Amino acid sequence: MEHPTVLVFVEFPDPKFPTGGFLNHLAYPDAELVGFYNLDDGESVQEVQDEYEEEFTTELRNQAEQFEQRGVRTDFDFVFNHDRGEARQKVAESHEVDAILMPGGANTLGKVLMPCRHTKNAEEKVSTLLNIIDRDDLISVDLIHIADPDDPEGKDEGKRILKEMTSVLVDQDIPSVQVNREVRTGRDISFELNQAARNYDLVVLGETEQDLGDNIFGPVGDYIVDERDVPVLILR
Question: In which domain, by residue range, is 152 found?
Fold first, then answer.
């Protein structure tokens, strides 16, 4: 996969786009830049389109040009919906994207945090990641597993998962000295990941069929972006 497609999902009327510095550290992705406007109850699509669509589309077009100038081939679109998560998922499926980026304030892309619940499809997801971000700019890839404190084997299982994930990264030419591992215990995954996300340039989450069903990583990703202003990349 030389050119994975990344859905860059931004919310209007006050969109947060990836910073120029962040874009400079991307590798070879194509982008689907999608603006989203959350409709209030009783607010019609036609009313909002009539009032804002031209202004919002112009802003998206200008931003798409910034992406293109940095070598990221970019298409753009706009959607109106009452549910952010639902809209994001529908766009991701309809455009068959490989990853979803929720932008934050980071201006570099050297320190990456990867929470690991399991190693399902790990090779494919790491390959996708390393075709999105420039591996030569990486300072560290920190792996974290949140174990259930009530599970007596939880920490050992977490260590096994992180060891396997380290091997996957090393097999794809990430030096082992750049990979750090941590197993934490906690019942609230959102809280633990939010705390762990401090001082990172990017948090990378994986999306599995189970995650699609319970939508667990959508809210977690939104929480991290909202609370820490750290970009979140969801690998599909």
Answer: 111-235
Which pLDDT tens digit goes with each residue over 84-131? 888 888 999 999 999 999 999 999 999 999 999 999 889 999 999 999
Which one of 102, 136, 157 terminates a domain? 102
The type of residue at 156 is: D
Among candidates 119, 221, 123, 117, which has minimal Cα distance to 172?
Answer: 123
State the DSSP H helix or E strand holding residue 227, giving kind and residue range, or none if neither.
Answer: helix 217-228
In the structure encoding, which two tokens stand for residue 111, read together? 């320190």
**CA–CA separation, 205 and 193 (whole Å):** 10
Instruction: Indicate whether 133 and 79 sit together in one domain.
Output: no
Distance in angstroms (rounded) separating the CA atoms of residues 46 and 108: 39
- CA dist 29 and 19 (Å) reads 16
- Concatenated DSSP letters of 18-80: PPHHHHTTB-S-EEEEEEEEEPPTT--HHHHHHHHHHHHHHHHHHHHHHHHHTT--EEEEEEE
- Output the domain CATH number for residue 23: 3.40.50.620
Three-state SS for 84-147 is HHHHHHHHHHHCCCCEEEECCCCCCCCEEEEECCCCCCHHHHHHHHHCCECHHHCCEEEEEEEE
Residue 14's Cβ-count burial label (10 Å; 0-12, 13-18, 19+) is: exposed
Average of per-residue pLDDT across 173-193: 94
